[in-house]
């Protein structure tokens, strides 16, 4: 797909981002804000890190929806991913985690998410669960059992300070001005996410498996007629989405370095924001990652405002991403949902 | 969604709850606690003695109200996940309107009744407006209600949390709380001599159920709501504006959530505090409503059941070392199983209990 074609198809999304950016710029000029003191290299770096869990979750979620299953349980998967990574890191290391334990914890969390994702996929596909209600249920189960795991291990909803992932400094490349510190002297998970986003986009648009996924959501009868098992395609996509959201939660934990289980837990709606990110990105993995970056930036704005001496209460600045989501959905509400989303498919044989 | 006969619904609700509890008990045992003791304290916490029953009814009152709020919307096919936020906004509106108008009215029972009325009107209004907002966003900008209402929950918690910390904080309060509402602004204790529960509160909940039942099942508006939820084109042909119906449905749902917030403020709390710590009635209400198949009358037994669970949860939190978060997880499992009637239908067919295939 050429860029012009892409821009044409996603004109609304691009217009939405343009409106947001222009709005921010006008506000900055009108209020006489020192723009370059707010948008610093550190800010971009922090925004990218904040965006990674959202982007990973969004990429998984859009695969499921493309295949015709609306997985709104991703928030729950993220909570399980984060809680599992935290407890695993603690257990594997015997209480004093190091860098290798962080990676092992992420891996363990992905495997556990895989098990949950398979169970969830069976309920959704084999037993035709109501996708919205079951997805919500998963969120509540996460809100209960995530902190429950923390209480079992630490007798508190919050973990003590664990290990967070170190920045990876790529020699030579890290010395490039601006791009160096942003991409080559940061959490390696940022790079991993960027590569995954591009790979997910290529896979969806340029491989036959990608076409199967899209056909399962748009025209399952045709796919069935072509001799491909719609159910198996959907299983694969839903399981992938659960694993990606679990990975998103684990990455969130690896960057934060400790688990918070009070209130809506440390995940705090990032799974829901992930869903909006892929709607905003118009079901394009790269678009979803860019949209995640917008929300990551809103999330990190607080530190920037403080450094330039604008004292908006933390409690209110923390609400920017949520307000941003509502704004995005309002300005750019209707999405091109795949036509067979939400309908169980039964082969006639 | 989830269509089934009344008997089937009852069977599914019972089976869902039983299966969820079974999994809960298994987890308790796997985590190394005594499952029998857990079950005993579960029952004791719900119905063991007058204070336990009063506590159960206190929670039930809130679950019935928030459950009806959810049912109004779900019945009309509008996924209002924002009852928690509407509940919070209604609650703070009740408390502040009472605090602000208290100096204008005489002290004592008459003034107290007047203030309660003012508080309820303010709470209902605020909840309604906060519900109408995502309704309007859906109707006129096609913004997904599930997501906007979840975001509005976060925003309500954040903004009200900031308000009680700063401008609305009572003078000299160390904790981030508003002032207390005057002593005489409370429901009289009838039957139960409990500080946090009054039969009046339960009566308000049951009256709301009755009103909503009549509106939903016996009025033109209720008919339009349900048809436009399930058969938008049919409703449109018969001259019903789908947009207007969505906004009205969300407003009505938010108003009921606002009443729940007012009952919470007047009967239980007596002041307002950071909403991140007041309980998740608006979320659990989703389970209550689904368990009742979104039927206003079914909300009453479902609300009683959840009141019992919540009450048992607080008992377990005090008297055992089993983490209370377990109860939240079990509630999630109940919702999950309610969403999968097919699971039970297939199980019933396999075991020869009934059903057809």
Automatic annotation (TrEMBL), chain A:
<feature type="transmembrane region" description="Helical">
    <location>
        <begin position="316"/>
        <end position="335"/>
    </location>
</feature>
<dbReference type="Pfam" id="PF02653">
    <property type="entry name" value="BPD_transp_2"/>
</dbReference>
<dbReference type="InterPro" id="IPR001851">
    <property type="entry name" value="ABC_transp_permease"/>
</dbReference>
<keyword id="KW-0812">Transmembrane</keyword>
<keyword id="KW-1133">Transmembrane helix</keyword>
<dbReference type="GO" id="GO:0022857">
    <property type="term" value="F:transmembrane transporter activity"/>
</dbReference>
<feature type="transmembrane region" description="Helical">
    <location>
        <begin position="76"/>
        <end position="96"/>
    </location>
</feature>
<feature type="transmembrane region" description="Helical">
    <location>
        <begin position="275"/>
        <end position="295"/>
    </location>
</feature>
<feature type="transmembrane region" description="Helical">
    <location>
        <begin position="132"/>
        <end position="154"/>
    </location>
</feature>
<feature type="transmembrane region" description="Helical">
    <location>
        <begin position="102"/>
        <end position="125"/>
    </location>
</feature>
<feature type="transmembrane region" description="Helical">
    <location>
        <begin position="182"/>
        <end position="204"/>
    </location>
</feature>
<protein>
    <submittedName>
        <fullName>Inner-membrane translocator</fullName>
    </submittedName>
</protein>
<dbReference type="GO" id="GO:0005886">
    <property type="term" value="C:plasma membrane"/>
</dbReference>
<feature type="transmembrane region" description="Helical">
    <location>
        <begin position="235"/>
        <end position="255"/>
    </location>
</feature>
<keyword id="KW-0472">Membrane</keyword>
<feature type="transmembrane region" description="Helical">
    <location>
        <begin position="12"/>
        <end position="36"/>
    </location>
</feature>
<keyword id="KW-1003">Cell membrane</keyword>
<feature type="transmembrane region" description="Helical">
    <location>
        <begin position="48"/>
        <end position="64"/>
    </location>
</feature>
UniProtKB/TrEMBL annotation, chain B:
<dbReference type="InterPro" id="IPR001851">
    <property type="entry name" value="ABC_transp_permease"/>
</dbReference>
<feature type="transmembrane region" description="Helical">
    <location>
        <begin position="86"/>
        <end position="105"/>
    </location>
</feature>
<keyword id="KW-1003">Cell membrane</keyword>
<keyword id="KW-1133">Transmembrane helix</keyword>
<feature type="transmembrane region" description="Helical">
    <location>
        <begin position="111"/>
        <end position="133"/>
    </location>
</feature>
<keyword id="KW-0812">Transmembrane</keyword>
<feature type="transmembrane region" description="Helical">
    <location>
        <begin position="246"/>
        <end position="272"/>
    </location>
</feature>
<feature type="transmembrane region" description="Helical">
    <location>
        <begin position="54"/>
        <end position="74"/>
    </location>
</feature>
<dbReference type="Pfam" id="PF02653">
    <property type="entry name" value="BPD_transp_2"/>
</dbReference>
<dbReference type="GO" id="GO:0005886">
    <property type="term" value="C:plasma membrane"/>
</dbReference>
<keyword id="KW-0472">Membrane</keyword>
<dbReference type="GO" id="GO:0022857">
    <property type="term" value="F:transmembrane transporter activity"/>
</dbReference>
<protein>
    <submittedName>
        <fullName>Inner-membrane translocator</fullName>
    </submittedName>
</protein>
<feature type="transmembrane region" description="Helical">
    <location>
        <begin position="196"/>
        <end position="216"/>
    </location>
</feature>
<feature type="transmembrane region" description="Helical">
    <location>
        <begin position="145"/>
        <end position="164"/>
    </location>
</feature>
<feature type="transmembrane region" description="Helical">
    <location>
        <begin position="322"/>
        <end position="340"/>
    </location>
</feature>
